[in-house]
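Researcher: Next sequence.
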Amino acid sequence: MIKKYNRLKVIILGSILFELLLLFFSTLVFKASFVLPIILVGINAAMIYYVSFIYQEDSKNSAYNISSLLGEEVSEAFLYGEIGILTYDSDYTINWMSELFYNRGIGRVSKKVTVWLPEVNALFTGDTDSVTVDIDEKIYEITRKDDSQILFFKDITKSSIIETKYSNERVVFGLIHIDNYGESTQYLEEQERSSINNHIRQPIIDWCKNNGMMLRRLKSDRFFVVLNESIFNTIAQNHFSILRDTRRNSAELDISITLSMAFSRGDDNLLKLDETVNSLLELAQSRGGDQVVIKKLNEEVKYYGGSSEATEKRSRVRVRIMANTLRNMVVNSSNVIICGHKEMDFDCVGAALCVSRIMNAYNRQTCIIGKTGGIEAKLSDALLLESDSLKDRHLFVTESEAINQLRDDTLVIMVDHHNPITSNGSNLLEKAKKIAIFDHHRRIADLKINPTLIYIEASASSTSELMAEFVPYLSNKINFNEAEATIMLAGMIIDTNRFTVRTGTRTFDAASLIRKWGADPILADSYLKDSYDEFELKNQIVSYSKIYYDNIVIVDVDEKIVPTRSLISQCADRILNAREIEAVFVISKLASNKYGISSRSKGEINVQIIMEAMHGGGHFSAAAVQRDNTSVEELKNELLNKIQEYLQEDNK
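Model: Next structure:
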């Protein structure tokens, strides 16, 4: 290449010398001034054409010929390894490309690489070390040499195809459970049961067959399925349509049947897949059913569905079994410690008081963590009012005092919560060896503890309801006074919004039982009454209401106003009384650098899914989230995005 350019220089210098001689000769022979310019123009035009042609050929060769630079062997090695090289200048204009591109008909010399392949911008900015691009049905991995203007292209088409095929063919285990199938069919005639099977079970079988899944029936209401990642991605893109189909078919039959589904993915260990999928199905059912729970190796648990309120699934037989299990744990424990969630409310304390009275009947030393973690203002007033009735029957302690009482055989009972992070005894739970959980909130994926007994019923109105159901199956020495029973009733009143939401027949049975123990509805109502200042503050908060999507209210409270968590939830309940409104979200500052959202729904919109998407939680119709170091405006913008995503998902 250098020799060619030297040759061009000689030619050009020679032509210039020739023109000078010709000029001198013409002046002597022709003695005519007009002839000389014509001759010179012709010679210059021929010279320029020749030089341009030679330069283009040399540029083309220099753009592709790596052999002349690195040798034939190195060139063949690059071609065999399917590696291409290009260089560029400070403006990202390509000035040289190796033979791989030439052989594949790719020529981009003098073009900007950032225009040709916008993906490489991430290499130049340092955001990534490599990018993958598709060029003429080939896949290349591009890397950049540090401190130089060179890009390397590695053809990874074959390995990418193999990797994709391997990923698509990885085994996925699944379980499908028909919720309430046994309860819905046990008293039916054979013809009616056959109709349910045709409308509920057969569509499940057809859905699996049409999507290429292997299905085996384990029980009358449970199926085991085996599929691959490609099939899973297809049914996920269709948003697990069998959930909607089952919900629609059960509505036509006027029965309460839904599906709980679980899928375990991404692990080559089949035993782990099987173990995981069983625990996922248990998680789906404890969250109320009618949903899909998915776990991929090294990823967070994901949820689909959950678009209907949890129905009552617990039976009196199960309640009796749980009561007997609790009794055995108590008998084999030296003492009992009860912990609730932070900022304890009426339901939390009511359930704790009920457990405390149960433990007293078995003569077990019992204490309740109630002096640390916070207590809601109205509850604090009620406990102060009833202190004489409670102080001789219950022992309230700090978490540190409870830890001092902790022994190897101590039973720690969590009420109205199951997440250690939200517990007023989180440090205690880290040290405890025997833990029992009683809760009515939808279960989170990772408990972060290893409890001995878990009783989480998302269909229950309150934890007070759950604990009240245990009493008839335990000792007949259990007794309650008016204050204890009334606080339990107040907890049920709040959690059901005065028995208007999340209520079933079991709810009223439990309320009747608590009333029999001496609960006073008038006294419970007095516990919950607002002061005038609270009344005025609620009106002020409600004034910030704005309607979105025709039936959703968002209240973004001025940050100068700092209400309590319970107060904003009460504001949400009040706004929900409006006929046209289906869901309410109240966003407020709760304390210094602490913000929260309280949400309520009439049942058409699952606020729990929306709050979970913001790393909160709760129930189908009542949920919340708390966040540090943010603002009302930031929470509102994030909430609007999550609501839009939920509505788009729900409409598919």
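Model: Residues 1-5, 59-64 have pLDDT under 50 and may be disordered. The chain has five domains: 2-62, 67-164, 169-305, 316-528, 532-650.
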